[in-house]
Design a protein that fits this description.
By secondary structure, this protein is α+β, with helices and mostly antiparallel strands. It folds into 2 domains: about 110 residues, Aminotransferase class 4, branched-chain amino acid transferase, N-terminal domain (D-amino Acid Aminotransferase, Chain A, domain 1); about 160 residues, D-amino Acid Aminotransferase, subunit A, domain 2 (D-amino Acid Aminotransferase, Chain A, domain 2), CATH 3.20.10.10. Helices cover about 30% and strands about 30% of the residues. The chain has 8 helices and 15 strands. The strands form 2 sheets. Strands 7, 8, 9, 10, 11, 12, 13, 14 and 15 form a 9-stranded mixed beta sheet that branches. The protein has a 6-stranded antiparallel beta sheet with strand order 2-1-6-5-3-4. Strand 14 and strand 15 form a beta hairpin. It is globular. The relative contact order is 0.14.
């Protein structure tokens, strides 16, 4: 594969970042992941805006929108891709050992684009298995969840729990015991025809796919409530699904020992989401 590294497209073997890069040493940096369909990166402007917000929150100067857009498409084209997984990584850059951000000179910008690997069809037909992680979500007062940070150990520990228990994904709770999000996704559940999802106040990243699904639901007459919910609220639901950029709308068949059907609202929202992708790609083809 070919990689975008600080303004150049280079072969993967030459895409080398210094061992003194503070992204490597301390997780001092941010990232975004995206998906392209037929050569069009879905919601690219929104992802870039969120990357720039993350950069602002950690006092890191981010490249302008046009440069990031060009870097993303240059990487896709350099790999002759149409349907792709894309990741932008922006670190504090190279500097002497020490926590002071002022030790670093220039940031490091990396863009990776790989062929998109479809999720197994059975996942969408039957749903996946989730657990509640014992690992609690970082306190919002400690690490602002609006920062999509390279320091992902909190989520990795929860993902390890899921893997050890044979589950696909783990749902994390905050320090007060409320639902927050999965390790890489936002959580939704349906009770009595109403769609519920943890609010930003619960300590979640405001997912771009999450926001789109909420908008599609409301536009199509599905009532949505954002708030603070306990695990018992989810376990009492009739449907559960999660959202993220790559999986889109993923049904859940089981949470802990509670089983769920892939319900009508989940199916409708997945269909609406796919239609929105087609509309976006048609309107933004290059």
């Amino acid at each position: 594969m070919n990689i975008f590294l600080d303004g150049l497209i280079v072969p993967e073997a030459e895409a080398v970042v210094s061992v003194y890069d503070h992204g490597f040493l301390y997780g001092d940096g941010i990232y975004e992941t995206m998906r392209s369909y037929d050569g069009v990166v879905f919601m690219l402007s929104r992802h870039i805006k969120r990357l720039q917000r993350s950069a602002h929150l950690i006092r890191l100067e981010a490249p302008e929108k046009e440069r990031l857009t060009d870097a993303v498409y240059a990487t896709i084209e350099a790999n002759n891709l149409s349907d792709a997984y894309i990741r932008i990584t922006l670190s504090r850059g190279k500097g002497p050992i020490g926590l002071d951000p002022g030790l670093c000179g220039k940031h490091t910008l990396v863009v990776i684009a790989e062929p998109f690997r479809e999720y197994p069809a059975l996942c969408y037909e039957r749903g996946v298995h989730l657990i509640f992680a014992k690992t609690r979500r970082n306190l919002a007062e400690a690490v602002d969840p609006k920062i999509k940070s390279l320091n992902f150990l909190n989520n990795i520990l929860a993902k390890m729990e899921a893997k050890e228990r044979g589950a696909y994904e783990a749902v994390m709770l905050n320090a007060a015991g409320f639902l927050t999000e999965g390790t890489v996704c936002n959580i939704f559940f349906v009770r009595h025809g109403i769609l519920y999802t943890p609010s930003v106040a619960a300590g979640i990243l405001d997912g771009i796919t999450r926001e789109l699904v909420i908008g599609l639901a409301r536009k199509n007459g599905i009532k949505v409530e954002e708030g603070k919910f306990y695990p018992e609220d989810l376990l009492g639901a009739s449907e559960v699904f999660f959202t993220n950029t790559t999986a889109e709308v993923m049904p859940v068949a089981r949470v802990e020992d509670r089983e769920f059907e892939v319900g009508e609202i989940t199916r409708v929202l997945r269909s609406l989401y796919r239609a929105e992708v087609r509309r976006y790609v048609s309107n933004n083809s290059r």
